[in-house]
Amino acid sequence: MSVKEIETAIMNLPVAEVDELVTWLDEYYASLWDQEIEDDVNAGRFDALLAEIDEEYKEIPKFADEDEERAFWATHDSTEYIDWDSAQAVVFPKLRRRKPAKKPQRQATLTAIQRGKYAHFPPAGDLLPSEVFAFSKAEEKAREERR
């Protein structure tokens, strides 16, 4: 079956089935990306970079799940683990944008930021771009106060 035939078949699907297909494709594409990263790690392509980082900063612990990681970063200063001054913008061409979090979740994240309860950047997708800017300003102010 050609790509053109697949496209035509997709255009004839009901919306609910297109949604189901998109979800499956996102998960499949993410698994391909995960495998590519795992292959690079196993091939040692990141070894020199990781060794350099390990020499300068505390080792970031391994987390059992995302909740454990969130709890850790809520109580630890990321500057002890990461050199943000030399951080460079990175492009992930295969990374797909996810839908923003529902309003109550975003509001909870914003409230936590305003109260200074975040010691790290909020989870991806929890904020809209304008809210990310507000968080960046709050984080910058917190860094200045720590100096």
Write up what this structure looks like.
It is a single chain. The protein has six helices and no strands. With 147 residues, the protein is an all-alpha fold. It has a domain at 1-45.
Structural key phrases:
6 helices, mainly alpha, 147 residues, extended
Percent helix: 55-70%
Q: Distance between termini? A: 62 Å
Q: Quickly count the helices.
A: 6
Radius of gyration: 20 Å
Strand portion: under 5%
Order of helices and strands: HHHHHH
Poorly predicted runs of 5 or more residues:
none
- Secondary-structure class: mainly alpha
Rough outline: extended
- Main sheet: strands, sense, barrel: none
Mean pLDDT: 77
Could you give the count of β-strands? 0
Draw up the topology in text:
Elements lengths: L2 H9 L3 H28 L4 H10 L9 H10 L27 H12 L14 H18 L1
Could you give a short description of this structure?
The chain is mainly α and 147 residues long.
